[in-house]
Amino acid sequence: MRVRATAQTNKDAEAAVADPSRPVARKRRFDRSPYMFILPFVVFCLILLLYPVIYSLTLSFRQATVETFVSGDMPFNGLTQYQAAIADPVFWRAVVNTLLFAFFSILFQFSIGFLLALQFQADFPLKNFCLALLLIPWVSPVLTAANIFKGLFNETGPINQMFHSIGLGPFAWLAEPAYAFPATIVANIWIGFPFNFILLYAGMRSIPVELYEAAKIDGARFWKRVGYITLPLLKPVSVAVLTLGTIYTVKVFDLVWIMTGGGPANGTHLLSTYAYQVGFSVLNFGEAAAIATLMVLLVLLLNLAQLVLQRK
C-alpha cells in the first residue's frame, strides 16, 4: 500500500511538471468553522427551549405538588393529571374560550391588516407618518395596553360614557362574563392587527405592478384585481401570517390576566391563564404541565387544519 501511494504521488508530481496548469489532487480537510458559528445558537435552543419543553412534558406524568416538588420525590402517575384536567368543567370552558378568542382575534386582525395594506399601496400625504402610528399597538408593552383597555372598559370609563351619551348603559364590561370576554378580544385585536398589516403590506409590495396594469387594460375593476391577482399571489404570506397569528393568539396570557384574571366566574379563562392558576394558585404543577401540553397540541391541530384548508 505504501509503494502504491508513493507511485501515485510520483505520477502526480510528473504530471504537474509536464502540465503546470493541471491541478494536483489533494485530500480535502474538514472545515469546522461554519459549525462553530452556529454552535452557540444550538446550545441556546437546547438549554432554553428544548429542555423546558421536555421537563414540562415529564412533569405532566408525575404527581408534582408543593410537597413532592420540594422533597424531590415526584412519583410517576401516568395519565392521572390529564384525566384530572379533562374531568374539570373549567378546563373545557377554557378550551372553548381559547378557540373563540383565537377565531375572532385572527379574523379581525387579518381583515383589518389586509384592508389597511390595500389602502397603503397608494401614495398619499403623511404616508410614512401613518405607517409609524399603526405600529404603536404592536411595539407597546402588553402591560400598558392591558391597563389602557382596563381603564377604557371601566364602569366610569370613556366607553361607558359614550354609551351613556346615547342613552345606553352603563355596562359592567369587566364584571360580567358576557361583556368581559368580548372586551378582551377587542383589546387583543388592537394589539395584533399591526403585525398582520406590516407582513401583508410587505407581501403586496413584492407583487409586480405590471400585473395590475395589464388587468386594468383588460378592464378588471379594483376588487377583481384583488381577487384574481392579490389574493392568489399573497397566499404564501397569508399562510405564514395566519400560522404565526394562531400561535401568538392561543398563547396569550398577560393581556387577559391583567384585564380580568380569568374571571368573572371563570368566564374569560384561556388555557394559558387556567394553567397558570392551577400551577401557581392551586399549586398543582403536574396538572398545570398537562394543561400546557394539551395547549401545545391544540396549537398544532389548529395550524394543521389551517394548512389543509389553505391547500384546498
Walk me through this protein's architecture.
With 312 residues, the chain is mainly alpha-helical. It has one domain: MetI-like fold (Orthogonal Bundle). Helices cover 73% and strands 0% of the residues. It is built from 16 helices and no strands. Helix 4 packs across helix 16. The protein is globular, with a radius of gyration of 29 Å. The N terminus is likely disordered.
Helix content: over 70%
CATH fold assignment: MetI-like fold
CATH architecture: Orthogonal Bundle
Number of distinct helices: 16
Keywords:
312 residues; mainly alpha; MetI-like fold; 16 helices; 0% strand; globular; disordered N terminus
List the SSEs and their pairings.
Blueprint: H1 2-18, H2 33-59, H3 66-71, H4 80-87, H5 89-119, H6 127-134, H7 136-139, H8 142-152, H9 158-165, H10 177-205, H11 209-217, H12 222-233, H13 235-250, H14 254-259, H15 271-280, H16 285-311
Can you describe this structure in just a few lines?
This protein has 16 helices and no strands.
